Amino acid sequence: MTQTAEYSKPLPRPTLISKPFWDGLRQEKLLVQRCRNCGRLQHYPRPHCIVCLSQDLEWAEMSGRGTVYSFTVVRRPAHPAFAADVPYVLAVIELEEGPHMSGNVVGTPVEEVRIGLPVTAVFDHVTPEVTLLKWRPAG
Amino acid sequence: MTLPSLRGRAAVAGIGELKPTRYAEGRTVPHLMLEAARLAMLDARMRPADIDGLLVAPAIMGAPVTFASMMAEYLGLQPHYLDIVDTGGASAASQFIRAAAAVTTGLCQAVLCVTADALDPSTFYTRGATMMGLPAAEFERPYGPMGANSGYALIAQRHMYEFGTTSEQLAKVAVDQRTNACANPMAIFYGQPITIDDVLNSPLVVDPLHLLEIVMPCTGGAAFIVTTPERARESGHPVVALLGAGEACTHASITYRTPMTTSPIVESAGRAFEMAGVVPANIDLVSVYDCYTITVVITLEDAGFCEKGRGGPFVAEHDLTYRGDLPLNTHGGQLSFGQPGLAGGASHITEAVRQLRGEAGERQVPNCELAFVNGNGGILSEQASLVLGRIA
Ligand SMILES: [Zn+2]
């Protein structure tokens, strides 16, 4: 629990709808909603499919592989808690299954990151309760 | 498709704008709104009793429930039409469209549209912290986004990747706008010219955007009064009318927008030009939202001033100053005039009105008859496009 007290960056507050996504990350699984009616993948999670309005949604496990769709190097902290991290990479990741997600690319110098870079999911257990999804270069 | 038309049915009676300052120095948002509103009423030769509509917009920190009626009371108005308009940076342009619709349909006669912001350095880090339950708080904030800065940086990076746009081309926008600001004593960066090297040598804040490509938040306010063309004529100024209007919103977060480099300006500007019955080549003044250099480049592309992807070479090839072949943001734009919260987006309207009236002084564009104004909110999310013109 000490770890929780020390982690001062913003944390997600899972909702009734999104809790399975965050529970999945804790178990090192990347889950995305899939509509059983029209087959569409939907991220972020919502109470229904925003295309066909079906409430019949399931959680589909993604491969954890994707590419960098775009990125930026944040060189000044947006929040005091990120001061020790700059420069860091904030990216939009395109999952190989299609959906886009926000995340950090870690485990590589910021100069090495480029659009199209293949990346793999990293499950960062930042507190006992919360696991954040990050990305590192594949292979 | 034939759009229900606002063309030529509403006009600007008066404008008021404060010289931006960095910090509030004790002034509040209501205080700034009143100062700007007073100037607009004086400019329109109107008194509070002549105003029967009020549209306000939130400060960046937000606004309480019933903010519009609080401001009506503070202004001494008893309107028949009032509301708070929030389309982010596009709010002022959206106010114009709603005011024109209200006047056209007879809900009221004269709508005061007002925006202001008071910057307090102690609150930088707490902005937007109350988004509990909104997806951005849950799925983006844990990763350290730098507000709008990182959103537009993602767009710029992708634009460079797809189209070969360069930092030199983006810097040209900031440099030409600064030249314009140096002809505008109201601009916060008046008297401080910059070069492309200055921009490229300024620190990278969020790659690929440098400090001088990023708008500086500040304090100020703006107001304008929308009424019928007949009543606008009583102001004694040349009449500037709304000829075309369009809005569009395709997303909130840029994370989920594909293609990331194309904005809903395609739709909002398309509708505005169609209503006005003109094309970009007819435009004498471009007065468009410029929170970042990339915003201007993408706006020029998506509004049809150049081909998609050609925005970089286009701004490099054209002189965007008030004496140039494509006068753009002649007041300096938000990048050099200043961005007092949502009043930053009003500055593109007030400048267009000045230019179309022929009241822009040293920086007057010769024979300025038609202006394209664009308001942009969020991360290229919500757009309000206007075609304004001087009418006989
Ligand atoms: Zn569906």
Describe it for me?
The complex is a heterodimer of chains A (139) and B (392). Chain A is mainly beta and 139 residues long. Chain A has two domains: 48 residues, no CATH class; 77 residues, OB fold (Dihydrolipoamide Acetyltransferase, E2P) (Beta Barrel), CATH 2.40.50. Chain A is 9% helix and 37% strand. Chain A has a five-stranded antiparallel beta sheet. In chain A, strands 2-1-3 form a three-stranded antiparallel beta sheet. In chain A, a hairpin with a 5-residue loop joins strand 1 and strand 2. Chain B is globular, with a radius of gyration of 19 Å. Chain B has one domain: Thiolase/Chalcone synthase (Peroxisomal Thiolase, Chain A, domain 1). Chain B is built from 13 helices and eleven strands. In chain B, strand 2, helix 2 and strand 3 form a beta-alpha-beta unit. The longest helix of chain B is centred in the middle third of the chain and has 17 residues. Chain B has 392 residues and is α/β, with parallel strands linked by helices. Chains A and B meet through strand 4, strand 5 and strand 6 of A and helix 4, helix 5 and strand 5 of B.
Summarize this structure as a short list of keywords or feature phrases:
heterodimer; A: 139 residues; mainly beta; OB fold (Dihydrolipoamide Acetyltransferase, E2P); five-stranded antiparallel beta sheet; three-stranded antiparallel beta sheet; 8 strands; globular; B: 392 residues; alpha/beta; Peroxisomal Thiolase, Chain A, domain 1; nine-stranded mixed beta sheet; two-stranded antiparallel sheet; 13 helices; 35% helix; 18% strand; binds zinc ion
